[in-house]
Amino acid sequence: MQKKAIVALVALGIIVGGCANSASQGKRVSASSSKSTPSKQRSVAKTSVKASPVGKIISVEKMNPDVGYKVANKKTVFYRSLKEYGTKDGIISDNITARGSIFGAIKEYETTTGVYYRVVMFYPNGFENRNSPENSGDTTEITNYGFVKADGLKPFSTVKSEWHYSQKQPYYVGNPYEHRIWSAPANTKHYTYVTHVFDRLARTQLYATKELVKYNGSHYVYLSTAKRPLGWVYKSPKTLIAGYYRDPGQQLLKPKAHEKMVVKKQSRKSAGTRVDVSDSTALPQRVYQIRNKRKHTLRVLTMGMDNRPIRIDFKRGKAVKVRTFEYWRKPWKTITNKKKLRTHFTVSHEFDEGAWSTVHFYKHKSKKLVRVRTYGTDSYATIWIYRNGKVGFKTRIPKDIMSYPLADFK
Fold first, then answer.
1. Average pLDDT score over residue span 288-296
2. How confident is the model over 211-244, as pLDDT tens digits?
3. What is the pLDDT of residues 15-56, one digit of tens each?
4. Are 333 and 324 in contact (CB under 8 A)?
5. What ranges does the record list as Low complexity composition bias (predicted)?
6. Which of 104, 115, 158, 372 has the fewest CB atoms found within 10 Å of its own CB?
7. Longest Cα separation, the chain
8. Quick one: how far is CA 79 from the chain centroid?
């Protein structure tokens, strides 16, 4: 708007000046025709071009914005444009504000006074890529750091090392909400974003094909399925379980030869098609049941929206033992307290993890046997198991919670 206003004022000035010169010229001509030539010469406006504070531009070259830089010294200041370079009003950011950030150079300007970079700040855009992609108004407002003198920045390596595996490494999902899959590890390239979530990958065999170490020492692996590439994820034994996928019912219920295990799974429609930042809301819940010939429930294993296994053993319709597991399927707590097994109890790591569950037992006369509800930071999901073997599922995410279409992250 400022540029448009300046152009309009200049144009107006030319028009007004032209009219004034024409009027005065007319008067001078009527007074004396012998002075017409000198009057025309005087009517030509003399303009002076203000010299650029960075001097004359000799050359401009494109640069790779994924090559990282950091502030080199205390004198480094970023300016809105080369025309405003060195002016107080032209400052975008001072040294203190920019000191902790990583920058990428888009263009290099060689001038008669030195070399200048047009720079952007490295920006991890998380879930917002579809709504505010790179170069959109929202991201540009955040990432644009204008111009800086080349000697005000120093090279910064965002990746310490990277290598390919000779053979792909098998993994499957443990904790589905702690980490997400990215286009590149955050702040290793000038623009990164979430490409996939684990909500619909809980039962999928995954493979890591390469690994890298970030500047801060954290490790990331590049994941793919048997059919398609996915992206980079933080290498954590809580998020990724090393090895080939194991059916949790077979692994943790251990059905005997004469026992039949029945699997009930929440429909995708019931689980929903929205993704939120904190939880794995769209992960379909599952129940693994073992019942005897009389159709009495003997053992059940629930997998809530957080993918945590909880095993409950029954005898004559009453719970006698509950075993809870870590996300990587290691036994965690065993509950045998009779009061808790007749009423309810909570499965929680307190502040260590974002999700927790409550297990509620119904009275013997009720048609319902047990309810397992998983609470996330923003949403919750419920499993009901009935005495006749039926299972109910429900997932709820409040309307006022920021969420995104699952289709953007499949």
1. 92
2. 999 999 999 999 999 999 999 999 999 999 999 9
3. 334 433 433 333 333 333 333 333 333 333 344 456 789 999
4. yes
5. 24-44
6. 115
7. 125
8. 29
Cite the DSSP H helix spans in 223-337.
248-252, 268-271
Q: What is the pTM of this model?
A: 0.84
The dihedral formed by the CA atoms of 295, 301, 307 and 308, expressed in degrees to the nearest 10: 150
Q: Whose structure tokens read 């490790």?
A: 219
Backbone angles phi, psi at 29, to 5 degrees: -65, -45
Phi-psi category of 357—alpha, beta or left, where left has phi over 0 and alpha has psi -120 to 50? beta
* Residue 286, helix vs strand vs coil: strand
Architecture per CATH, domain 160-242, reads as Roll (2.30)
For residues 378 and 398, the answer to whether their CB atoms sit within 8 Å is yes
Q: Which amino acid is at 386?
A: Y
Would you list the DSSP string of 49-115?
Answer: PPPPTT--EEEEEE--TTSEEEE-STT--EES-STTTT-STTEEE-HHHHTT--EEEEEEEEETTEE
**What CATH architecture is 57-155?**
Roll (2.30)
Q: Kindly state the DSSP code that residue 339 receives in the 8-state scheme.
A: H
Tokens 């902790």, residue located: 100
**Every domain of the chain and the residues it spans:** 57-155, 160-242, 252-409
Q: How many CA atoms lie within 13 A of 48 on its CB side?
A: 2
Which amino acid belongs to residue 134?
E
* 3 state DSSP class of 308: coil
Q: Would you say 160 and 215 are in contact if contact means Cβ atoms under 8 Å apart?
A: yes
Give yes or no for residue 11 having a pLDDT over 70: no
If DSSP codes are grouped into helix, strand and coil, which group holds residue 26? helix
Give the pLDDT score at 31. Answer: 35
**Is 160-242 in the same CATH topology as 57-155?**
yes
Predicted confidence (pLDDT) per residue in 241-258, tens digit: 999 999 999 999 999 988
Indicate the SS3 state at residue 250: helix
Exposed, middle or buried by CB within 10 Å (0-12, 13-18, 19+), for 226? exposed
